[in-house]
TrEMBL record:
<feature type="compositionally biased region" description="Basic residues">
    <location>
        <begin position="16"/>
        <end position="59"/>
    </location>
</feature>
<feature type="compositionally biased region" description="Basic and acidic residues">
    <location>
        <begin position="60"/>
        <end position="72"/>
    </location>
</feature>
<feature type="region of interest" description="Disordered">
    <location>
        <begin position="1"/>
        <end position="72"/>
    </location>
</feature>
<protein>
    <submittedName>
        <fullName>Uncharacterized protein</fullName>
    </submittedName>
</protein>
């Protein structure tokens, strides 16, 4: 039998369990948020790369046209 001073710990245990659960959920949420951010960053990088490629292509065509005009 527990001594009188210790009392019942069920309330404290429940609280601790609740805290742990909340912490775990928070961690999960942050993980998902990070993943989403990473995905967004990747998408942005891809878009930038595409834009750069398009610009280079246009410049190349312009140079070709200029050269052909000079040749005439």
């Amino acid at each position: 039998m527990p001594d009188r001073n210790s009392g019942c710990l069920c309330g404290a245990l429940k609280q601790e369990k609740k805290k742990k659960k909340k912490k775990k959920e928070e961690k999960e949420k942050n993980k998902k948020k990070k993943k989403k951010k990473k995905k967004k960053k990747k998408k942005k990088k891809k878009k930038k790369k595409k834009k750069k490629k398009k610009k280079k292509k246009k410049e190349k065509e312009k140079n070709l046209v200029d050269k052909s005009i000079d040749a005439l």
